[in-house]
Write a structure and sequence with these properties.
It is built from 5 helices and 9 strands, in the order ββββααααβββββα. It is of the alpha+beta class. It has one domain. Strands 2-1-7-8-9-4-3 form a 7-stranded antiparallel beta sheet. A two-stranded antiparallel ribbon has the order 5-6. Strand 7 and strand 8 form a beta hairpin. The longest helix is centred in the C-terminal third of the chain and has 42 residues. The chain starts with 14 loop residues before the first strand and ends with a helix.
Length: about 260
């Protein structure tokens, strides 16, 4: 929303991108936030090495092998929590330009977010995609549509929060608070609270003997890209620290007359 100052920089909007698997390349389904959330909570949970067991009452030595307390076998678990406000008020002022919003309010946007939780094979499109089995018998030629027996899984999803944060995620929590409705009881205003768990690069590696998919390659690239930016920012902080230490040393030198 504007602040009345025409020269204010245009604020980028966050988005969630879901890759729908297709025969050749995955097609991105982009869900752009209507309004950026007021706050964004990010949690990092580091690996906790198991503690060495204490000796038993009989004096038997610990049964577990001592673990290096600095061990970190994999990246820390990372998660985001945010709330999105969806409002159809502006669209309802010009219904001829927004026929979907006029009828269903913000229900379509809620549905788009909600479908991120469902496996692709259970969707209507997935139910229509299968293999044709043709057989020739005494009754002539018959054909039947068979659904693939592949294990269903949710499509790869990216959380985009500006150019510096593009990470593969999976929805861990989903809560909708409907606040206003139209005459058909479709919500016209709602707040959707999302919990997003970052999927690490290692978790996106293909299983042994399985082919690598284009959507997971994209997800791994985005994970490395974001991780690389963190490392560059950390290096920039080291430069700031060196400058600050030099300033403190100069002040101390002046104080002691060096």
């Amino acid at each position: 929303m504007g602040d009345g100052y025409s020269r204010s920089p245009k604020l980028l909007k966050g988005a969630i991108v879901q890759f729908v698997k297709m025969p050749i390349v995955p097609i991105p389904n982009i869900i752009i936030f209507q309004y950026n959330p007021d706050t964004l909570q990010r949690t990092l949970t580091p690996y906790a090495p198991p503690e060495r067991s204490a000796p038993t009452a009989t004096g038997t030595p610990p049964s577990t092998t001592p673990v290096d307390p600095t061990a970190q076998p994999y990246d820390p678990a990372e998660s985001f929590n945010l709330s999105l406000v969806l409002d159809a008020s502006d669209a309802l002022e010009v219904p001829e330009h927004h026929p979907v919003a006029f009828v269903t309010g913000v229900a379509d946007r809620i549905a788009a977010l909600e479908m991120l939780l469902y496996p692709a094979g259970d969707s209507l499109l997935g139910g229509l995609v299968g293999s044709i089995n043709v057989s020739i018998g005494g009754g002539g030629i018959s054909a039947s549509l068979q659904r693939s027996a592949a294990r269903p899984e949710v499509p790869v999803t990216l959380f985009i929060w500006g150019p510096g944060r593009i990470v593969p995620v999976r929805l861990s929590t989903f809560n909708v608070e409907e606040q206003q409705w139209n005459q058909l009881l479709y919500p016209t205003r709602a707040k959707v609270t999302l919990g997003l768990k970052v999927i690490t690069k290692d978790a996106l590696q293909p299983a042994a003997g399985a082919s690598d998919s284009a959507d997971k390659k994209i997800a791994r690239f985005c994970y490395d890209f974001t991780r690389g930016q963190k490392e560059l920012l950390a290096l920039a902080n080291i430069a700031n620290t060196i400058e600050a230490v030099a300033g403190v040393a100069s002040v101390l030198g002046d104080a002691v007359g060096l």
